[in-house]
Amino acid sequence: MSGTLVVVGVLVALAAVVVGLFALGAWYRRHPSRRGASAPGAGLMTAAYDEVFNPHAMLARESIDVEQRLVAPAPTPDGDRGIAGGRIRLDVDGA
Questions:
Q1: 28 near 34, Cβ under 8 Å?
Q2: Can you say how many angstroms the Cα of residue 84 is from the centroid of all Cα atoms in its chain?
Q3: Please, which pLDDT band fits residue 12 given cuts at 50, 70 and 90?
Q4: What's residue 13's pLDDT?
Q5: How many Cβ atoms from other residues are within 10 Å of residue 90's Cβ?
């Protein structure tokens, strides 16, 4: 009888530790000001986790990455003085 109570007590304590670790992890993720610089590999683990368990977050991260890699439009050679205002200006040298 007492052996069974010890096993049950150990299992309850182990379950409490596991639940406490999950709660601590959730609290830690929600308070970024409380943590320091993260490890470089943390993003890799987050991406793998999101790909399996949260595909919408993975798709959002991919679209943000694509938008950041888009090329900015180049300025016109004449500094936007030619057709930028909706009209075309032709300069003709003496013929």
A1: yes
A2: 37
A3: very high
A4: 95
A5: 5
